[in-house]
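ok, trying the design again with the full structure, not the truncated one.
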């Protein structure tokens, strides 16, 4: 069952925005490797970095569930999951250079973050009709897992 839902336009400066536990410090990882870029997600202590395909304002939906939600893989271009530890029970959505967008009180513990990316074929520099859905639910920690990998078609 969905506990919380938010639609927001997020400024994805540097192609990123964050979900983190603000009580543990607001520090995003800076040691990106090619695999992080390809997976469109980066993790660090108490943070998951979501990497949209535009360095601009993008439409994002955040859903917080009490259990793993259904996922229709066919509806999305790219799907990736990562674990997030929220020991304080605070979850904050934060823009890279903007600041906090929203926050929620949740049960302290481990969560799974599923980042679903759609409309990636429409992205052209700062323009596009890409959309992002982030689903969060309590789950034991595990490795980053790509459920569906987007690869841009070759340019003519």
């Amino acid at each position: 069952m969905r506990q919380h839902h938010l639609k927001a336009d997020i400024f994805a400066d540097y192609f990123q925005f964050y979900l983190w536990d603000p009580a543990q410090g607001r520090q995003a990882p800076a040691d990106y490797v090619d695999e992080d870029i390809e997976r469109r997600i980066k993790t660090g202590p108490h943070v998951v970095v979501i990497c949209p395909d535009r360095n601009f304002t993008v439409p994002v939906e955040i859903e917080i569930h009490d259990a793993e939600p259904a996922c229709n893989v066919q509806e999305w271009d790219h799907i990736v999951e990562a674990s997030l530890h929220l020991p304080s029970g605070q979850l904050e959505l934060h823009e890279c250079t903007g600041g906090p967008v929203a926050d929620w009180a949740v049960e302290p513990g481990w969560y799974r973050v599923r980042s679903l990316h759609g409309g990636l074929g429409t992205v052209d520099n700062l323009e596009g009709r890409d959309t992002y859905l982030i689903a969060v639910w309590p789950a034991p920690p595990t490795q980053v897992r790509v459920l569906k990998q987007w690869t841009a078609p070759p340019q003519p």
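Keeping the full-length input from now on. The longest helix spans residues 34-39.
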